[in-house]
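Example record

The entry below shows one chain as it appears in the dataset: sequence first, then structure tokens.
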Amino acid sequence: MAPPDETDYVSASYLAGIRRYGPDLISTLFLFFSVSLMAGRVWRFPFDDEIYTLRLIGRESALSLLTSFPRYGGDEHPPLGYLMFYGLHQLGLSDAEMRLCSLAMTAATLVLFQLLVLTWIAQRNHKPDTLPTRVFAVLLFSLTPLAVDQGDALRWYTPFALAVALFVMLYLAPRSGLTQLWSGAALGLAASIDLTAALLVPPFMLYRYVLQRRFHWPFDLTYWLLAAGGAGLGLYSAFWLFTNHFAHVRGDFGEGIARSILTDALGFFGGNALGVGQAWIVVPAALVFVLAAACEIDRKEPAKPAHLLLLMFSAPALMALFGFDLPRSFLWLAPAVAVLLTMFFDRQIQQGYYGRVLLLVSLALAAPYSAIANINFGTHPFKRNSVIPYQSILDFIHSNANGSALIISTDPVVPWVLRTNSGDECAGYFMAARACLAGGRRYDSIFVISGHSNRSEHAVTMANFQSLVAEATAGRTKVTSFGAGLDEDAALKSRLSGVPLDRYILTVDYYR
């Protein structure tokens, strides 16, 4: 069943690599968890897409998640990722505990790729990795900015990234056709988590059948059957989407090419945390990566494993060319950047260019350091709602509310947090707040939380919202207002996008 023997680029056993590089992997895990927790991950407020996940796993059964795909809004993501979080939820885990599990999956993804690259380098150099290379690897993997920012998300990004890591690692396992077969299963499971996995198939086929020149029909037939079996949920989801809800898919690809490419590049290398006004610090890191990637292209050895990673970058490039601008979706590819940089820096060390290495490492690490420092408290946010001080908003409401309180919000987080509070409070997201007024109910205090959202350009929706606010506040007096969250790039973003943005991300108006 195994494919024909080819030149192996990795050491004889991953287990041997784990024993050899155990201290490195443990250091990466410790630093990654420490940095993530210190950056405010895990114990935090949910973001908008997480609320969708939490609402879904709280109201649906496992069977409905599997069989009733159209019921949850035509979501383009297959149900396997939701089923995983549903299982954690059923075990009684809190939101923070589920995020900790998600962070663990991201950590596993990082160390799997780290083990790969250290093993490849040892094989390439025919000697153990040098201490500087191992230290650089620990820093590059543990400080991967997109992993720190999105690594605890209750979304498909983290299980998908782990599935992709397993796919790559198992396929490149040395002298083990059986292990490589399980790579097909991992690729299939990735497709049942997100349909992006389909874009990995052409690069993989190009690598296997053109660069490696491998074709062994019993192996390949079994491999693709395993992949198809694992991708069952993804195939079902794709069929439903493209036959019933194709407009929903097209909605993710609506931006212009130039804008989507620049947005994806800034979000990817800036860890979804650095804004337009800070883009300059991302440029050197991106250029160092391009240099590293170019240096790993080897026409003499087309089957080298780094070529598979290079080919995988064609997936986000293709998506960006079609107007996709959601860089946090590329979490699965972020560790590959650390892989290529580690290989590049080691090559420079082997050639004795120590000063050059220090300069390039500094340029490469400047963006991660800056991104991590700006995840929670930056005033130049990449994603505006990522730096909203929700606790300050809740404190403002609770300190000013006099008796019963109505909260009407264009942001989903505060209504979600307040959903289980006592009967003295009623909170609603957009028109859902109308239910709070049922039966002519009156409130002593009214808080209107407003700001730019994904519904701001829908004239009918905004007109209905303003009508609801006018109805609720009729005869009331605005006592005070509170600006929550600063975006110092608001004016620049407005000029670039043509969308008027306020310097304050949200405004809370208090009526009595």
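Notes for this example: Confidence is low (pLDDT under 50) at residues 1-12. The chain has two domains: 14-373, 388-511.
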